[in-house]
């Protein structure tokens, strides 16, 4: 393969820039021409496609977000939009495309594959909910950001002897809430994968109060309910002073951790190797520290399983 392109799509994630850099440099190192596409699939449709040199990805490895910009593209959902995207690539003689993003991004790539473009996915989302990889780019940084924020909340929760309800990202996945909750010593964690009864939560808080515990932390994944709703529901069972904190997009920004830079670099370079080997329709991943490739179809039909032992452990340790 002589010419490939790279884009980022969907929610941004720290470490995406390291992955872009790896795609560009690996491709040039191996004698290919490489192009960047700006604004996700929008850039494919609007022909925002530019040839990259080694220096074009200088000074980005340590930056959060994605310097190629990201978007959720409605037009790409239409047959016409996808035909135009594929035609633009063909016109430039680009045979392969690396897409960096979450499962929605992969599905877009699968559609392009049907139109003859060879596509490989690189998993990047703070949600860590992509099948075919133990961990996604951006997750480690976001997790550390959340834990840092909860540590700060803990200080003020202790000072005022309050219960705090902290809402974290995770529309469909409890990975961030679960592991941030364990790492920050939260008493209760609400995740979409498990049903947690508010009555039980209130009873645990009451038991803690009876033992002299003065404050507690509740972490709720946004996919379960909002922090505000949680607070109102809890008030039906127990009379305590609560405060809420919605961490929001702070979780998605910030400079990538070393782990995310390493992961982005490894997976970006591996995606190029997969295209060189003639692979298409697969997502790059890492499993038990081995690089792996998983079919898009498999990624689509399976949900990433959460680790129930983490949930149980956090319950055991935060009595
Ligand atoms: O990046 C994934 C994610 O963080 C989800 O957990 C969250 O629901 C969503 O993105 C919000 O994205 P946006 O602000 O782009 O709509």
Automatic annotation (TrEMBL):
The record's InterPro entries line, in alphabetical order, gives:
ATP_PFK, ATP_PFK_prok-type, PFKA_ATP_prok, Phosphofructokinase_CS, Phosphofructokinase_dom, PKF_sf
In the UniProt entry, which residues are flagged as the active site?
127 (proton acceptor)
Segments forming domain Phosphofructokinase = 3-275
Task: Please name the top-level EC class of this enzyme.
Answer: transferase
Q: Please tell me where ATP binds in this chain.
A: 11, 72-73, 102-105
Question: What modulates its activity?
Answer: Allosterically activated by ADP and other diphosphonucleosides, and allosterically inhibited by phosphoenolpyruvate.
Per the record, the pathway is:
Carbohydrate degradation; glycolysis; D-glyceraldehyde 3-phosphate and glycerone phosphate from D-glucose: step 3/4
Which residues bind substrate per the record? Answer: 125-127, 162, 169-171, 222, 243, 249-252
- Single annotated GO MF: metal ion binding
Keywords on record = Allosteric enzyme, ATP-binding, Cytoplasm, Glycolysis, Kinase, Magnesium, Metal-binding, Nucleotide-binding, Transferase
Cofactor list: Mg(2+)
Q: Which residues bind Mg(2+)?
A: 103
Which reaction equations make up its catalytic activity? beta-D-fructose 6-phosphate + ATP = beta-D-fructose 1,6-bisphosphate + ADP + H(+)
| Biological process, per Gene Ontology | canonical glycolysis; fructose 1,6-bisphosphate metabolic process; fructose 6-phosphate metabolic process
What residues bind ADP, as annotated?
Answer: 21-25, 154, 185-187, 211, 213-215
Give the subcellular location.
Cytoplasm
Major localization class: cytoplasm
Q: Which Gene3D superfamilies match?
A: 3.40.50.450, Phosphofructokinase domain
Reported function: Catalyzes the phosphorylation of D-fructose 6-phosphate to fructose 1,6-bisphosphate by ATP, the first committing step of glycolysis.
- Tell me, how does this one assemble? Homotetramer.
The family note in this entry says: Belongs to the phosphofructokinase type A (PFKA) family. ATP-dependent PFK group I subfamily. Prokaryotic clade 'B1' sub-subfamily.
What protein name does the entry list?
A: ATP-dependent 6-phosphofructokinase
Say which species the protein is native to. Answer: Jeotgalicoccus coquinae
Source gene?
A: pfkA
């Amino acid at each position: 393969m002589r010419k490939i392109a790279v884009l980022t799509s969907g929610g941004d994630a720290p470490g995406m820039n390291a992955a872009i850099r790896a795609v560009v440099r690996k491709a040039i190192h191996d004698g290919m021409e490489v192009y960047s596409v700006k604004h996700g699939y929008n850039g494919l449709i609007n022909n925002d496609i530019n040839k990259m040199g080694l220096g074009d990805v200088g000074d980005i490895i340590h930056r959060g977000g994605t310097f190629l910009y990201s978007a959720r593209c409605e037009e790409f959902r239409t047959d016409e939009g996808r035909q135009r995207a594929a035609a633009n690539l063909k016109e430039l003689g680009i045979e392969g495309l690396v897409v960096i993003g979450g499962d929605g991004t992969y599905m877009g790539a699968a559609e392009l594959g049907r139109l003859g473009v060879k596509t490989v996915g690189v998993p990047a989302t703070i949600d860590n909910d992509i099948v075919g990889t133990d961990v996604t780019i951006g997750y480690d940084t976001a997790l550390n950001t959340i834990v840092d924020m909860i540590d700060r909340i803990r200080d003020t929760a202790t000072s005022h002897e309050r219960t705090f309800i902290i809402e974290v990202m995770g529309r469909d996945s409890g990975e961030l809430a679960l592991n941030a909750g364990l790492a920050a010593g939260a008493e209760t964690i609400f995740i979409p994968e498990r049903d947690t009864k508010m009555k039980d939560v209130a009873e645990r808080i009451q038991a803690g109060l009876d033992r002299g515990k003065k404050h507690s932390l509740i972490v709720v994944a946004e996919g379960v309910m909002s922090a505000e709703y949680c607070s109102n529901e809890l008030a039906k069972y127990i009379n305590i002073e609560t405060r809420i904190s919605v961490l929001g997009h702070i979780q998605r920004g910030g400079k990538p951790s070393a782990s995310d830079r390493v992961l982005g670099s490894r997976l970006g370079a591996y995606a190029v190797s997969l295209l060189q080997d003639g692979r298409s329709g697969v997502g790059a991943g890492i499993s038990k520290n081995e690089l792996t490739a998983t079919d898009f179809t498999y990624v689509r039909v399976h949900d990433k399983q959460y680790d129930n032992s983490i949930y149980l452990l956090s319950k055991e340790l935060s009595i």
